[in-house]
# Entry
Amino acid sequence: MSTTTSAARAQTVLGNDDWWRDAVVYQVYPRSFADGDGDGTGDLSGLRAKLPYLRKLGIDAIWLSPFYTSPLADGGYDVADYRDVDPRFGTLADFDAMIAYAHELDIRVIVDLVPNHCSDQHEWFQAALAAGPGSPERELFHFREGRGDLPPNDWESIFGGPAWTQTPDGQWYLHLFAPEQPDFNWDNPAVRAEFRDILRFWLDRGVDGFRIDVAHGMIKADGLPNVGKAGDERQVMMVGRGELPYFDQDGVHEIYREWRPILDSYPGGRMAVAEAWVPSPQRLARYIGRDELHQAFNFDFMMASWDADSFRTIIDKSLMEADLVGAPTTWVLSNHDKHRHVTRYGDGPVGLLRARTGTLLMLALPGSAYLYNGEELGLNEVLDLPDELREDPSFLRTGESRDGCRVPLPWGGTPADGFAFGPAGAAAPWLPQPASWAALTAEVQEDDPASTLNLYRQALAVRKSNPALGGGAVRWLAAPAGVLAFEREPGIVVVANLSKVPVSLDAFGGKALVTSGPLTETGELPVDTAVWLQR
Ligand code: NOJ
# Structure
C-alpha cells in the first residue's frame, strides 16, 4: 500500500523531469548519518527524523549509500538481498515511510545500486558454492580453474591482492573488490533479468534515481585475458590511463540501453548517475545520453590542489567535458571514499576556512553538486582511529583506510536525536567521535550565524533563488595572481582568494551575498576566503 503512495507522490508532487541537471544532492551514509533507535548504528528512522534538517539545509535530493541486507564487509557495498533493508538499518516499511516524508518535503531520493558484485552471503553465491564446478549456479559468477597453484589470471583486487579466491573444491572465483564481494557474470541472461527486476522494485517504491556503483565494471573481456602489467605498479593505478580487461568494456553499454527504457517508463524524471572511472572524456561520454545514463560523477574537482591554477584548469576541463558528454557535470568535494576536504586542505582552522571556500566555489558552478553528510558541519577526517576499530576492507589489505570519513555525525542534544555527542543511555556510535567535535555538533551550530552549517544554508538558499546559478556559463574575469574570479548568469560574481595576501574587491563591484569567512575591516577579501557578489 505504501508503495503506491510513494510512487503516486513521485508522480504528483515532483514534476520537472530535468530536476537532476542542477540539483544539490546530499549523500547519506546510512550507518553514520543518524541513529534513530540508539543502538550506535545509523538507520532509516534516524534519517526520516532528520529530513526536516535536510529540508532546512536546502538540498534537492538525497543519495543513500547501500542500506540493503548485508554483512557490511564493505560498508554495505556487499549486498546479500537487493530487495530488503538490513535489520540494522530498519525495514522496508521504514524505507517507505522515509521516502514518503522526503517527497512531502520536496526532497528526491536516489538509491545506490551495486550491480558489479554482491555479498558472498547472497543466496545465489551460497548456492553456487554448494552446487560445485560445472553447475548452472556457478555460471552466475566467474568461477575458473587455476593455473596450477596460481589464480586463473593476473588480475588484482582494487582493495589489494589477487582478484581471485580459491574455494575448497579447488576452483577460484573472481572478485574485483574484497573476497566477500564476488563479481556477477553479466554474460548470463539471468543476471540481467534479475537487475531489471531490482530496478523496477525500487522504482515502484518511488525512488527518483540510482547511483550506479562501479558502472564501468560489469562486463569482462572475453577469455579473461591477463593484464600483463609491467613492474609492480598496482593495476588500479592504471585506471584512467589505459585499457583494463575488466573495466570500460564496450558490452557494458548494452546493459544501460536495457535499463534506460525502464527508467523512462516511470513518471517524474527517474535518473541514473554513474560512478565510472574510464580513461578519457570520450569514453565517459559513451555512458551518457538519451539511451543510456543521465550523468556521471566528475571526481577531478575533488583532486584539485589548493592552488588557483589547478582549480581553474579543472573547472575549464570539466565544463569542456560536460559539453562533450552533452550533460551538465557533477561537482564533488567529499564522499565516503575520500578524506574529507577540511583535512585535505590542511585541517584545523585553515583547512576549515579553505573547505568553506571550496564549497562556495563548487556551489556557484553550473551542474549538479554532490555533498557528503557532515561536510555542512565542517567535519574533518578522523585520522587517529585505533586500527582495531577500522573496518574498511581496503585498510586490511593495503593500509589505506576510508573509515575516517565514515565516523557518525555529531548531532548533539539527547539520545533521541540520534548520534548525540556523549549521549546518556544510547549505545556509543559504531566508530568513536573525536572530542573536538563537541564544538561542531549540529545543535551548537544551529543558531550561530558564522557556523559552517549556516554558511551552507545561506549558499543553498541563494543558489535556489537564482536558478541560473545551476546552469549557464562561467565567464572568467581578470584577477590578481592566485585569485579566481568569474561571473555567472544573473550578475553574480564569485571571487576566491587563493593567494597569500588580502585582495581588494573594488574591481568587481557588487554587494556581498555570501562569504566563506569575514572580510577585513577595510572590506578586503582575506586569504583563503571566497565571496559571492551581486552586481
Ligand atoms: C565504490 C564505492 O564508492 C566504494 O565505497 C565501494 O567500496 C566500491 N565501489 C565497491 O563497491
In short: Confidence is low (pLDDT under 50) at residues 1-13.
